[in-house]
């Protein structure tokens, strides 16, 4: 599994979440297998989103889609406040003890 982690400030969680929910089909078509939304306990105006993919290539392709077609348009990304930061993560096997 590969994770596309996205972090960014938001202006309003409910507005952001409604927009996020509107991209459910795009996520499915891109190969997103699951996701988790996290917020710092001391900062409700910030969030971290982990999207799970089978491969790094699919994660990178979806990150490019977001940059080119979603985040570049205020109408397509309401609730976004600032520039998203993305990272593609892989699990590191833990040594057996």
**CATH architecture annotation:** 2-Layer Sandwich
Q: What's the total helix number?
A: 3
State the total count of DSSP E strands: 4
Count the domains: 1
Strand portion: 25-35%
What's the rounded overall pLDDT mean? 94
In percent, how helical is the residue content?
A: 25-40%
| CATH fold-type name | Alpha-Beta Plaits
Mind summarizing the main beta sheet? 4 strands, antiparallel
| Rg, nearest Å | 14 Å
Query: What structural class results from the helix and strand content?
Result: alpha+beta
Poorly predicted ranges: none
CATH hierarchy class name: Alpha Beta
* H-E order: EHHEEHE
Distance between the termini: 23 Å
Task: Give the neighbour order of strands across the main sheet.
Answer: 2-3-1-4
Q: Choose one word for the global shape.
A: globular
Structural account:
- This protein has three helices and four strands; from the N terminus they run E-H-H-E-E-H-E.
- The chain is an alpha+beta fold.
- It has a single domain, classed as 2-Layer Sandwich (Alpha-Beta Plaits).
- The radius of gyration is 14 Å and the shape is globular.
How is the topology of this model organized?
Blueprint: E1 2-9, H1 13-21, H2 24-30, E2 34-38, E3 46-53, H3 56-70, E4 85-90
Antiparallel strand pairs: 1-3, 1-4, 2-3
Structure at a glance:
The chain has 97 residues and is α+β, with helices and mostly antiparallel strands. It is built from three helices and four strands, in the order βααββαβ.
Summary tags:
alpha+beta; single chain; 4-stranded antiparallel β-sheet; 3 helices; 32% helix; Alpha-Beta Plaits
């Amino acid at each position: 599994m590969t994770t596309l982690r996205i972090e960014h400030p938001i202006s309003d969680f409910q507005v952001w979440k409604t927009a996020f929910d509107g991209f459910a089909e795009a996520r499915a078509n891109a190969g997103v297998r699951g996701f988790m939304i996290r917020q710092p306990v001391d900062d409700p105006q910030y969030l971290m989103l982990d999207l799970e993919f089978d491969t790094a290539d699919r994660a990178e392709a979806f990150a490019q889609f977001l940059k080119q077609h979603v985040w570049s348009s205020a109408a397509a990304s309401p609730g976004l406040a600032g520039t998203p930061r993305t990272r593609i993560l892989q699990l590191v096997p833990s040594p057996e003890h």
